[in-house]
Each structure stands twice: as C-alpha cells, then as structure tokens.
Amino acid sequence: MEIWINPACSKCRSAIGLLDAEGASYTVRRYLEDVPSEQEIREVLGRLGLEPWDITRTQEAAAKELGLKEWARDDSSRERWIAALARHPKLIQRPIITAEDGTAVVARTDEAIRDALARS
C-alpha cells in the first residue's frame, strides 16, 4: 500500500495517524517532491475509477491561474487535465491510497481509509 501525501495537509496527517493506529504497512510518497508522471497519474486514475477533474483541487491558486473551472470535462480534454496535474502536483487531491488489490481511494475520510485497509 502506498499513500500520496503533502505533510502540510491535515487530512494527510490524519490518514497516516489512522494507518499507524491500525498497524498498516505502507509506503509514503510525498508527491510534491516525488512528482508523479503523467503515466502514474493515468494508472492511479484507473485504480480510482475516476477522471482527472475528479481529483483536481480547483480552489488552488494554480487552478485559478490555469482557468481549470472553464476547461471541458470530456474524453478529448482528459490528457490536458493529466498534463496539468503532472506539471502542478499541488492540484492533486490528497491523500490517495493505493491498495494491494489494485484499487485506490481518495482517503479524505476515516471510512475511505478503512476501505483501503480492507482491500489490502
């Protein structure tokens, strides 16, 4: 299991705390420092069953500068969104946990974290 975190994020710190309390074995990826490639983002999206706009933090300054709220959310725009996430990793929703069964969750709630634990 791997968890993508921003250490400054309270949701990320809470997720790590719950994983530790549950005795989970996991790897931490500080995705702002170890930025995921476009391919890695595609793979995580596949595991999540989501589209890139579903995991984009549209309130971030970079999102506003890029005008993301105005971007189309369709198949022809998918690669544009993925490229933006790879260039501006702060836009990626956090934390993301990749489970052992090949799935992933956006772990913003205790329920989502426990769901990922149940899959591992």
TrEMBL record:
Which Pfam families is this protein grouped with?
A: ArsC
A GO molecular function assigned to this protein is: arsenate reductase (glutaredoxin) activity
Which keywords has UniProt assigned to this entry?
Oxidoreductase
Taxonomy, superkingdom: Bacteria
Q: What InterPro entries does the record tag this protein with? A: Arsenate_reductase, Arsenate_reductase-like, Thioredoxin-like_sf
Q: Its family?
A: Belongs to the ArsC family.
Q: What is this protein called?
A: Arsenate reductase
